[in-house]
Write a structure and sequence with these properties.
The chain is an alpha+beta fold and 159 residues long. It is built from three helices and eleven strands, in the order ααβββββββββββα. The chain has one domain: Jelly Rolls (Sandwich). The chain has a six-stranded antiparallel β-sheet, with no helix packed on it. Strands 7-6-9-4-11 form a five-stranded antiparallel β-sheet, with no helix packed on it. The radius of gyration is 18 Å and the shape is globular. The N and C termini lie far apart (54 Å). The relative contact order is 0.21. The site of copper (II) ion (CU) has 5 residues, from loops.
């Protein structure tokens, strides 16, 4: 009995504190979200808050993305399934390799869309919009047209 308690304590002690805290329980009120500039893979102008996990690593993650009106993410794919819930505003979402804002559908708050791994799609806002993305990391974006990739077109030193 005593030995097994000790072994459990040692196993717990060897786990990173952050992962323990994250795995067990998390409550986050809206004003506790920590917003920061979106990663350079996204067009400039949006902000991201990480709610759970690490979107850059293996494992589950939950993030929010806050974007201004008229923000566009050009046609792209993801190496993992992308699950998007609209929190506020509206996100227009369409499938295909060519940006065409006459297509698609404006997903309303509470609405959801899923882009399976490798599916070509694009999205845009017409008003300030917040979405939540969840899935299994690592999250990445591959633009269909390399000229659309903000990492290659940035002139302000974003990397
Ligand atoms: Cu996407």
């Amino acid at each position: 009995m005593k030995t097994s308690v000790l072994v459990s304590a040692l196993i717990l002690a060897s786990l990173p504190a952050a992962s323990l805290a994250m795995d067990e329980h998390a409550v986050m009120q809206p004003d506790a979200l920590k917003w920061g500039a979106a990663p350079p893979a996204l067009p400039p102008g949006s902000e991201v808050a990480v709610l759970a996990g690490d979107p850059g690593a293996d494992g589950s993650y939950v993030v929010r993305v806050r974007m201004p009106a008229n923000y566009t993410v050009p046609p792209h794919t993801h190496p993992t399934d992308e699950n998007v819930t609209v929190i506020s505003g509206a996100l227009h979402f369409a499938m295909g390799a060519t940006l065409d804002k006459s297509k698609g559908e404006a997903v309303q708050p509470g609405g959801f869309f899923r882009a399976a791994k490798g599916m070509q799609h694009y999205a845009w806002s017409t008003e300030p919009t917040v979405i939540q993305i969840h899935g299994m990391g690592p999250f990445a974006i591959d633009y269909v047209n390399p000229a659309d990739d903000p990492r290659t077109t940035a002139t302000t030193g974003r990397k």
